[in-house]
Amino acid sequence: MKHTDIRDLFEDAAYCGREVTVCGWVRTARDSKNMAFAALNDGTTLAHLQLVFDKEKLDPAPFLKLGTGLMVTGTLVHAMRGQGVELNVEAAQVLGECPPEYPLQKKRHTPEYLRTMPHLRVRTNLFNAMLRVRSEVSGAIHEFFRSRHFTYVHTPILTASDCEGAGEVFRVTTMPYGADGAYPEEAAYYAADFFKRRAGLSVSGQLEGEAAAMGMGKIYTFGPSFRAENSNTPRHAAEFWHVEPEVAFAQLPDIMEIAEDMIRHILRSVLERCKPELDFFQTHLEPGLCEKLRGAADSSFGVVTYTEAVRLLQESGAEFVYPVEWGCDLQTEHERYLTEQIFRKPLFVTDYPKQIKAFYMKQNPDGKTVAATDLLVPGVGEIIGCSEREADLDKLLEAMDARGMRREDYADYLDLRRFGSVPHSGFGLGLERMLMYVTGISNIRDVQLYPRTVGNIR
Ligand code: 4AD
Predict the structure, then answer these.
(1) pLDDT band at 167 (very low <50, low <70, confident <90, very high)
(2) Residues 6+ away with beta carbon under 8 Å from 228
(3) Best mutation site among 374, 384, 436, 441 for ligand 1, i.e. most ligand atoms within 8 A of its Cβ?
(4) Does residue 76 share a domain with residue 131?
(5) What percent of the chain has pLDDT over 90?
(6) Which of 217, 246, 310, 453 is the most buried (most CB within 10 A)?
(7) Residue at 456 is within a domain
(8) Alpha-helical runs (H) found in 61-185
(9) How far, in Å, from the CA of 331 to the mean position of ligand 1?
(10) pLDDT class for 104, splitting at 50, 70, 90?
(11) pLDDT(82) > 80
(12) What is the mean pLDDT of residues 344-364?
């Protein structure tokens, strides 16, 4: 269908005074004695195009019902009120009718109500803005890595290993209902399945990413990860998008520099390209959002060791639900206190106790901590998990044995330490957590098109 994007009409003054055809959905409508008005949105911009109907020329009734899909031709003119342009309609056609039971009748709905209709909430300003920012953030991530000669690799989604070793893997099977009863042992049951062994959805592309980096030097993956965590929180989803660079010949400070540069690049891109969307979020969700993002884009991030962070939390006098002591995993409340109250900017917490971190992290000479860091940001908490990898075969085996991991399940990974093992590091950024930080949206369910969480899939 030959038509012009509404975004172009707002951005290119040359359209003014010309006849144009646009398509879109009616967002709001108003009827008066001689005239009628409808706000049309086609998803290319947050702004609605005002349609002006002269009742002497055209009966506007069929074109004023909320949610109706329209194709409209008319003359684009300067808006009577305010800035911008509007369309004096000469001809209109209903492409898709929308009956009054259309659920998005009100101007504003609660996020909880909108979550009950993921297929329709895309037609709200909130999702219009969020999805455009999500697209820009994704583009900025690719731009960042590609401009630095990282190779974009696609790690498998179906896998036989559990990268994080936390047992949060969704199983993949073609076995029929009740088949397990026919097998005396677990091993025999898995051996009869599609892959002839236990398989699942990847929680992280890291292990395969490390293999790629050991030949390609600098790689990144950007795809979905899956976690069967029974965590019903505003920042955990069962399916999320994961950005994972892996860099050969890089130690912890090198990878931290890359992570910080990447976050800054994303922030600058969004500040430059998504101004209307950020203004929208700032008005409706988080006062001071743009200043927060500009501040983070222009200044260096904080760095503190885990040991020092624990001391700062203990001495803060703040009351936490979970008490803080050396050796404990930092909870969201601790993370947020550190980044929001103490440092007031994005913060790397480094050198965590080895017991609370994954087997693959490089052990520090102190014997107690690992060369790992989490990046915490205000409003969200952890958005990046990062580490130098243990490149020494014996130390890696020791860490696996201490966790009761089966060596044969990680044979390929262990080979990487046998054949030309070099220092290397990487990190994982959760795209949705980054989006929560950038938009001020406080629930991960509202930065995904179709969120999957415990007890929720459609
Ligand atoms: O800290 P995590 O578990 O680290 C890894 O998966 C490493 N293998 C990454 C690497 O070094 N290549 O996860 C990394 C990030 C977290 O900081 C968080 O942003 C996000 O992934 N994440 C989740 N996001 C949404 N829902 C969940 N359930 C998430 N689990 C992790």
Answers:
(1) confident
(2) 168, 169, 170, 238
(3) 384
(4) no
(5) 93
(6) 246
(7) no
(8) 111-115, 125-147
(9) 15
(10) very high
(11) no
(12) 97
pLDDT top residue among 55 and 84 = 55
Is the pLDDT at 107 greater than 80? The verdict is no
> From the CA of 30, how far away is ligand 1's center (Å)?
47
Inside any domain, residue 192: no
Q: Whose CA is nearest to atom 6 of ligand 1?
A: 204
The residue nearest atom 25 of ligand 1, judged by CA position, is 236
Question: Would you say residue 268 lies in a domain?
Answer: yes
Structure confidence by residue, pLDDT tens digits, 403-424: 999 999 999 999 999 999 999 9
Question: Is residue 19 domain-shared with residue 143, that is, in the same domain?
Answer: no
Q: Are 324 and 433 in a shared domain? A: yes
Q: What is the pLDDT of residue 81?
A: 80
Please give the number of the atom of ligand 1 that sits closest to the Cα of 244.
12
Whether residue 153 sits in one domain with residue 10:
no
Q: What is the pLDDT of residue 222?
A: 98
What is the DSSP code (8-state) at residue 147?
Answer: H
In this structure, what CATH number is given to the domain that contains residue 92?
A: 2.40.50.140
Nearest-atom number in ligand 1 for the CA of 430 is 19
Give the mean pLDDT of 115-135: 97
Which residues are near ligand 1 (CB < 6 Å)? 163-164, 204, 206, 227, 229, 236-237, 240, 242, 244, 382-387, 426-430, 432-433, 444
Buried b vs exposed e over 122-133: b needs ≥16 C-beta within 10 Å? ebbbbbbbbbbb
Q: Are residues 89 and 161 in the same domain?
A: no
Which is the closest atom of ligand 1 to the Cα of 245? 12
Which atom of ligand 1 is nearest the CA belonging to 426? 11
Mean pLDDT of 353-372: 97
Give the number of domains in the chain.
2
Give the span between the Cα atoms of 136 and 159, in whole angstroms. 30
| Cβ neighbours for 147, distance < 8 A, ≥ 6 positions apart | none
Q: Is residue 148 part of a domain?
A: yes
- Structural domain including 92 reads 6-102
Do 406 and 327 lie in one domain? The reply is yes
Nearest CA to ligand 1 atom 21: 430
Q: Residue 374 belongs to a domain with what CATH number? A: 3.30.930.10
The Cα 313–Cα 453 span in angstroms is: 31
Please tell me the residue having the least CA distance from ligand 1 atom 18.
430
User: How many whole angstroms separate alpha carbon 294 and alpha carbon 274?
Assistant: 13
* Mean pLDDT along residues 292-296: 97
Q: Looking at the structure, do residues 297 and 365 belong to the same domain, yes or no?
A: yes
Same domain, 127 and 96: no
